[in-house]
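Let's practice the habit of predicting before peeking. Look at the sequence and jot down your guess about where helices and strands might fall. Then scroll down.
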Amino acid sequence: MPLSFSQTASLTCPQCKTPFDADIWLIVDAGERRDLAARCHDGSIHVVTCLNNHSGMIAAPLLYHDRAKKQLFLAYPDGMSEQQLQQTGGQLIQQLRSQMLILPGYEYLDAPQAIPIELLPAAMDDKLDEVMAQSQAQAEQLRNDPTVAAALRILQAHRAISETIQEWMNLNAWNKSKQFLESHRELLSDTAELVLAAMLDLARARDDADMQTDVTVHLEISRTARILGIDAAYKKYLERSASNERTSEARAELDARLAELNLRSQADLERALPDHPELHELMARVMREENPIWRAIEKLLGTRSPQEVLQLARAYPLLLEDEGLKAIREFISNARSADDEGTANHLQARLETLEQFKSSGLLVDEMGQQELIEESLDNETRTALAEMRALGISNEQELESIFEQQPHLRTKLDSIKRSIALSRLYGNISEDTKSILQKIDLLTSYSELPHKIELYQTALERFAREENPLLWAMLNADLATALSESPVGDRAPVFKGW
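Done guessing? Here is the structure:
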């Protein structure tokens, strides 16, 4: 009887929603199955692949046995409780012993070593103590890292909001995440952004790629929600989720064909493909219809300039994410493998444009603002900007040096930015009112309060309440605050036009 043992599990791919069967290995005997031992060593033993070639890791325990080295490891996944480990481990050990002839010297079978599954390769190489010592040293080094220390202080000082953020990040559906953010507006505060930045510093220090991705996504959502609103922040995620939930015509046709051929696993599919080439086309149609990345890449192939690439990225922000960039690189690689150098070179140039924009640190929605700014520039300022670009400015210090040489350029750009920001926030505003609001924005000292009050009152005379309720309410609230703080005059709030 074989010692290695697996169970067939019926799974559903979270990406394409296709049901499929997969063998989950629970016991691996190294002497009997060297191929499975190799997968234990490279960490792929619990990787499964659906019929559409989407891969993922299954969280499952594993009993690893090497008779020659007298090794018996009970490797457990993250999140498995001690009670579950004892129960499952006992069953797996009993299963292994029932298939073996227990001889003298096999006492090691009575004392399996329980380890996290990610440490199994080190245990197989007899380097577990060494790796554990390295981990402890790294942990000590992290504790002494000033960046880590600062991040931990921030999390400790804001424990309540840190716990709320963690709860938000643990949600497994974008609609639930959006609802949570709507009911926890404190996550849109400066404090929340500070905590998220601290979490990102910790993830980077620990080289935790998954945590970095998770925090980065939620930091982007938070920042976008503060600028454009919660609906805009979640738009692409909810659209992608809805796309995944829809069953396309191609998907229904593919599922029916797989059922007709009784194909339930990746191995079944690979055996059937040579005799059923129509499955290739069906799977390609499903990818085009259901995967927004491939739709975006098809459109990217039609772009003719960097400007068109950036415009497309506004409609398909997924192109700027790691998943999108990876898909583009794979497309380029496949094109080169097929000797289609024209397509590969064209897409390589588009990829470089996307990578350059991503490295700039701008949000996708800030592209529109940048375009509006440049459209508003006079010839002198536009020429100066072109000269700045030609200098290849790469950091804030170099930019500050340019502004010191041409202070009028900083003033002009700041003025245009404020003008556009006011228009985005409050809608159409007359140039006269906009000019007053910009002047108010420049008055920051306590001694300037009387003048600020005059400007608030002047601005409120420029339009009626019904013309712009949001701006009207904001100005009246700011006027009331200024009057209560003013060192002269009537301190009582005065609401004009009430």
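How did you do? The chain has a mean pLDDT of 79.
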